[in-house]
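Hey, can you fold this one?
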Amino acid sequence: MTDRSMDIRHAETAQGAEDAKEQSDAEEETVIAPWHFKLLVVGTVGYLIYRFIWFIFLLTGHAWNG
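Sure. Predicted structure:
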């Protein structure tokens, strides 16, 4: 091997290390859920609580059968 080929290999390794560091930094960033997704989750949980309470009333015979 010549000195030039070793320098090129070292430069490629250094560039690969920088790319790997940039990728790991990008992977560590947290993604915040959008507001409409949070609203959807709150609405779904509220609806399921309502249906659970309705089911309890149905089992006890106090449900409205309107």
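The helical segments are 3-28, 35-60. Let me know if you want another pass with a different chain boundary.
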